[in-house]
Amino acid sequence: MKRKLRLKIKVTENDIKRQVKDYLSLKGYFHFYIMQGLGAYKGIPDIVAIKNNRVLFLEIKRPGGKQSGYQKQFQTDIEGQGGGYHIVKSLEDLIKITG
Question: In this structure, which CATH number among 3.40.1350.10, 3.40.350.10, 3.40.50.300, 2.60.40.10 belongs to the domain 13-98?
Fold first, then answer.
């Protein structure tokens, strides 16, 4: 009996972050990565991107990744003020968001 070989390619969060940053640069967004750590606002997203008076708060997740409670609260707070908070799990997600 023949067995099919399956090659599983794991996409990491860092892979997606790299793609997101490259795409934002290509599209002319001013953007910066936020390092979580001492004194950072709990739940703050990974990347903030700005273009044409539009500010995007981008939380990067690997496929299957989930938000923490703090991240969910941050999303609620941003959206409550009319801000654009987005979870990005692939480059395709980002393309949909930025148009």
Answer: 3.40.1350.10
Q: What is the tens place of the pLDDT at every residue in 22-67?
A: 999 999 999 999 988 878 889 999 999 999 999 999 999 998 999 9
Q: Where are the beta strands (DSSP E) in 16-89?
A: 30-33, 47-51, 54-60, 84-88
Pairing of strands 54-60, 47-51: antiparallel
Residues in the chain: 99
Structure tokens at 72: 């969910």
Using CB atoms within 10 Å of the CB of residue 16, give its burial: 0 to 12 exposed, 13 to 18 middle, 19+ buried: buried
Q: Give the model confidence (pLDDT) of 2-14 as tens digits.
A: 677 676 778 889 9
